[in-house]
Design brief:
Elements lengths: L1 E7 L6 H12 L5 E7 L7 H8 L3 E4 L8 H14 L3 E5 L3 H10 L4 E5 L3 H4 L2 H12 L3 E5 L2 H11 L7 E2 L6 H5 L11 E6 L8 H14 L3 E6 L5 H10 L6 E5 L4 H6 L3 E4 L8 H8 L4 E4 L4 H4 L4 E4 L4 H13 L1 H15 L4 H15 L2
Parallel strand pairs: 1-2, 1-4, 2-3, 4-5, 5-6, 6-7, 8-9, 8-11, 9-10, 11-12, 12-13
């Protein structure tokens, strides 16, 4: 049996955390022994519940914010006891796995969840560059565009970069397809953290213009984060309180998407958003910015606009908001496209990668 250590900074609500948890929960337990190593303390999130319900052994190291020498040593000792055949890291989790993997000749797979320039910096980036060039670590990009950016940033051959797209549990979302409300409202929905990256202030300002042209339009914002209060204040200033709903972090995202008509994500930068894949699995057309790996998955199933292009965003929302037939056509294209990223298929790709790079 192949031992896999999946290392993440935390299991807070986020795309990278969700992806790592789904992988750990769905990998073939008859062939792989998986342990999930979480640098932070438990946060009682839905993602933590996912791995717990799946029976995944999860070890929390209770690290506080910032770098911790103590955690580095404790993780080293734990890995020395577990002796994994492959170490699979995500985000800054790589920092705490590099020493053990390097000293014990174990390959470290590192999934790059965002544009690589935003993933790590400084000395950690230099260490990763050394490991990639020496083939002691393998970068795994979540889209073709991210793979090219990774090769360029680290000055390595594109052949050294693996590419596996993020997974989505298609069945979990398609099961809700027939529950869309039959009224005259047009519901735009977005799922993500309230952070500068997601540009929710820009989305609310765009929606203010859309609602004047399309009075039946509504906006649902799913998620939480440091800018939520600021976005709520902006909604109030624009007089949109009766048209914009804030749900916070919720577990029933498939049901929420099933009641929507269009998914919108106006991010300044991205890797390959899980939220877009989930929206596609729910049969929704997508309006998103052409950043990161998004153009790899949003083609005939949506409309791409340039980051920061307010007019383009408004025009796209009005276009889809007014054209029910176009929404239906793009939604069907979304369902046809997203099946390539179904959870069992992506899990199998990672299993093959583990087998190839096992010690």
């Amino acid at each position: 049996m192949i031992k896999i250590a999946i290392v993440v900074p935390s299991l807070v609500i986020g795309g990278a955390e969700n992806m790592a948890a789904q992988l750990a929960a769905n990998i073939d337990k008859n062939r792989f022994c998986v342990e999930l190593l979480v640098m932070s303390s438990p946060k009682e999130t839905n993602i933590e519940k996912t791995v717990k319900d799946a029976g995944v052994k999860t070890v929390y190291f209770n690290k506080e914010l910032g770098f911790s020498i103590k955690t580095l040593w404790v993780v080293y000792k734990y890995l020395n006891q577990f002796k994994p055949d492959v170490v699979h890291t995500h985000l800054s989790g790589c920092v705490y796995a590099i020493p053990w993997a390097l000293l014990h000749g174990v390959t470290m797979l590192h999934t790059i969840h965002n544009r690589p320039i935003y993933e790590v910096e400084g000395s950690i980036r230099r260490v990763l560059k050394f490991l990639y060039k020496k083939r002691r670590a393998v970068p795994v990009a979540i889209s073709n565009i991210i793979a090219r950016e990774t090769a360029d940033l680290y000055n390595i051959s594109p052949d050294l970069v693996e590419t596996i797209f993020n997974p989505v549990d298609v069945a979990r979302f398609t099961a809700r397809l027939k529950k869309r409300a039959q009224d005259n409202k047009v519901v735009f929905v977005s799922v993500g953290r309230f952070s500068p990256q997601k540009n929710y202030i820009g989305l609310v300002e765009a929606f203010s213009c859309v609602s004047k042209e399309l009075p039946v339009a509504r906006l649902v914002l799913i998620g939480d984060g440091e800018l939520k209060l600021i976005v709520e204040k902006k909604v109030e200033q624009l007089g949109l309180k009766d048209k914009v709903e804030f749900t916070g972090n919720v577990a029933d995202i498939p049901q929420r998407l099933a009641r929507a008509d269009v998914f919108v994500l106006p991010s300044h930068y991205e890797g390959l958003p899980m939220s877009i894949l989930e929206a596609m699995a729910a049969g929704l057309p997508v309006i998103a910015t052409a950043v990161g790996g998004i153009p790899d998955i949003v083609k005939e199933n949506g409309i791409l606009v340039n980051a920061g292009d307010m007019k383009g965003l408004v025009d796209a929302m009005i276009k889809l908001g007014k054209d029910e037939e176009l929404r239906k056509k793009m939604g069907e294209k979304a369902l046809a496209e997203v099946i390539k990223y179904d959870l069992p298929e992506v899990t199998a790709q990672y299993e093959r990668l583990y087998e190839r790079y096992r010690k």
